[in-house]
Design brief:
GO cellular component, one term: microtubule
Helix content: 40-55%
Number of strands: 2
Strand order of the largest sheet: 1-2
Mean pLDDT: 80
Low-confidence stretches: none
Pfam family, one: p25-alpha
Oligomer: single chain
Order of helices and strands: HEHHEHHHHH
GO molecular function, one term: tubulin binding
Strand content: under 5%
Family: Belongs to the TPPP family.
Radius of gyration: 32 Å
Structural class: mainly alpha
Distance between the termini: 104 Å
Protein name: TPPP3 protein
Largest sheet: 2 strands, antiparallel
Length: 174
Amino acid sequence: MAEAVDMDAFCESFKAFAIQGDTKATGKDMTNKNWAKMCKDCKVIDGKKVTGTDVDIVFSKVKDKSARTITVDQCKKALEELSAKRFPKDDDGKNKTFALIAGKKPGTTGVTKASKTGGVDRMTDTSQYTGSHKERFGADGKGKGIEGREDIADNSGYVGNYKGEKTYDKKVKK
């Protein structure tokens, strides 16, 4: 039988996967989505003996009836159940399954990264603007704000192009 797995490292990995992608997560419990990600990233799911469906079924078995998450202890039970499928006829399958997860962190494969193409630079280069757009920026490339607009809206309450503007007080008798 191989040496025991460092359970502190396992708990740290559980916490890292539990908070992945959820700003409100505390790391004490894990959702089904994060459970499946942990099993996939740590190669518990091999596609032959253990599939994504198996992982979902085991999650549903070990969680409390009305809960949507599992705790560390429930995660251990679920992994014990999966280890029987992942490493059949192996007395040390449980430790091997825990070793797959201990010390691992969530991967970022498939995450959208910032664009490194020249297209973004061209779109934000104000020196290349033409026409009326060019007038909204100073020589330093910074926007002029409201001063850069030729036609500023008149918020005086009068209808546009009204010739008798500011004559109301003259018409009203006091």
